[in-house]
């Protein structure tokens, strides 16, 4: 049995002991030792040599905050910077940790059991294939991301968006067709992104669908009874989504049978209704469909929920993905049309990972390594600084605009969401005209350049630092950045 020792100081000993008690790993025993120092970051290689019997342990883990290099010692590595995070590491792979760098910089804190997921899908039973994507029973849930009005976009913009969605976890790119689009627009749009990923076509226009078929579209999204009858044999060998009829739940089974008789490969979409517009009844249709048909792949349009409720998308995506996995839904359709749904593709990717792991383990989707907690915390990992004898209580000062008070010049700060950058434009105090703009992705680099080139007053520096950091946070959280206005009200 392997033995892993965590060494720490007096300050973090209690927290580290509590966290160590939560660790579970086959054939690994964990211990904690308190060194005669206050802060774990002060642990030196000499402490390890003098105090610890290294032969007793397979591995020794020191604080990730330590500045020292432990390479001269055998099997001594750095853990995470925060003692609370020791539960987020896979200790069967402890050899990946470094004697020089904290665990946070070497591995991703928050262990996801990818091996278990891969084993779970070792024996897929696909009903159809979209290029190399297997769709059906015992296959990973696929994500389709729609680019709204894709037929109206410039090729360069379209390709950029498609690549971003694939990088963020999409498996298929859906072409949203503008109502004024012509067949040549469909052809051009498909050809623009077809080399990037599998492509689906979102239109109910039969002429557009025929154009898509001629261009070897990977998936037709979607067809109803009228379209099936009109297109007939042209649907042979096509992957397509058959829409349900909310007023007649049996109709979808009849239409699936029709498409199979035509030689098509159907996917069912009983249609997910928006909140307070029939959502619960639509979920019932999914349940009833799966009870009657366990084989035909299912699609769920989660964008119908995220776009039609005024709340942050990540929690909605987490909940809807867990419902989808419980119902054996095989494809999830989303969109990132509005600012509040930006990032839905990556959110669904994480959400499906959480839900699949929970399903495999027979647990709820928590404590899995992956999570979608963005604006709150599951647990607080804060360490309070010691209180000095001298206490100074601060009060709110009268507000002054420190941006212009010293009149060396002032800055207007903003964000560019297309390039994910912050910009700060300098105005000359006398002429009131902009003379230069600093651009960067990191607030620190911009304020450092301002200090280096202009030597602002301490008040102006504090003000600019606060505003630039706020702009950086706004980019990360998709909040509006408005200078001199709080992000959260």
TrEMBL record:
Pfam families: DUF6513, Pterin_bind, PterinBD-DUF4346. InterPro entries: Dihydropt_synth, Dihydropteroate_synth-like_sf, DUF6513, Pterin-binding_dom, PterinBD-DUF4346. Residues 132-358 form the Pterin-binding domain. SUPFAM superfamilies: Dihydropteroate synthetase-like. One of its GO terms (biological process) is pteridine-containing compound metabolic process. This is Dihydropteroate synthase FolP. It comes from Methanonatronarchaeum thermophilum. The lineage of its organism: Archaea, Methanobacteriati, Methanobacteriota, Methanonatronarchaeia, Methanonatronarchaeales.
């Amino acid at each position: 049995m392997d033995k892993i020792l965590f060494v720490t100081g007096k300050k973090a000993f209690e927290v580290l002991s509590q966290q160590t008690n939560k660790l579970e790993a086959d054939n690994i025993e964990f211990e904690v030792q308190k060194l005669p120092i206050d802060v774990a970051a002060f642990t030196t290689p000499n402490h390890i040599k003098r105090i610890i019997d290294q032969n007793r342990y397979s591995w020794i883990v020191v604080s990730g905050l330590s500045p020292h290099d432990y390479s001269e010692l055998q099997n001594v590595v750095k853990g995470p910077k925060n003692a609370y995070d020791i539960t987020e590491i896979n200790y069967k792979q402890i050899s990946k940790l470094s004697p020089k760098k904290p665990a946070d910089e070497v591995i991703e804190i928050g262990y996801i059991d990818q091996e278990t997921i891969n084993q779970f899908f070792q024996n897929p039973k696909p009903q159809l294939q979209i290029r190399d994507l297997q769709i059906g029973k015992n296959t990973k849930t696929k994500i389709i991301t729609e680019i709204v009005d894709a037929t109206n976009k410039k090729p360069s913009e379209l390709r950029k968006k498609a690549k971003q969605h694939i990088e963020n976890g999409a498996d298929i790119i859906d072409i949203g067709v503008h109502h004024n689009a012509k067949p040549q627009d469909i052809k051009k749009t498909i050809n623009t992104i077809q080399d990037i990923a599998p492509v689906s076509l979102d239109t109910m226009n039969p002429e557009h669908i025929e154009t898509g078929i001629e261009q070897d579209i990977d998936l037709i999204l979607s067809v109803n009874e009228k379209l099936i009858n009109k297109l007939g044999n042209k649907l042979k060998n096509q992957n397509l989504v058959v829409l349900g009829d909310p007023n007649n739940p049996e109709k979808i089974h009849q239409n699936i049978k029709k498409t199979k008789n035509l030689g098509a490969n159907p996917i069912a979409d009983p249609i997910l209704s928006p909140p307070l517009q029939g959502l619960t009844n639509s979920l019932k249709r999914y349940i009833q469909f799966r009870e009657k048909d366990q084989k035909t792949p299912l699609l769920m349009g989660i964008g119908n929920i995220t776009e039609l409720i005024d709340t942050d998308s990540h929690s909605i995506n987490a909940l809807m993905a867990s419902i989808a996995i419980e119902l054996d839904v095989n494809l999830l359709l989303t969109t990132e049309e509005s600012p509040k749904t930006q990032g839905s593709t990556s959110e669904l990717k994480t959400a499906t990972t959480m839900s699949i792991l929970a399903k495999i383990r027979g647990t709820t989707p928590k404590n899995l390594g992956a999570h979608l907690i963005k604006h709150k915390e599951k647990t607080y990992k804060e360490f309070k600084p010691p209180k000095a004898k001298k206490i100074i209580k601060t009060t709110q000062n009268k507000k002054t605009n420190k941006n212009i008070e010293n009149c060396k010049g002032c800055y207007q700060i903003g964000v560019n969401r297309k390039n994910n950058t912050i910009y700060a434009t300098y105005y000359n105090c006398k002429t009131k005209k902009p003379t230069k703009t600093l651009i960067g992705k990191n607030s620190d680099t911009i304020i450092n350049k301002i200090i280096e080139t202009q030597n602002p007053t301490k008040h102006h520096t504090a003000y600019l630092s606060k505003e630039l950091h706020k702009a950086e946070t706004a980019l990360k959280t998709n909040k509006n950045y408005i200078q001199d206005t709080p992000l959260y009200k």
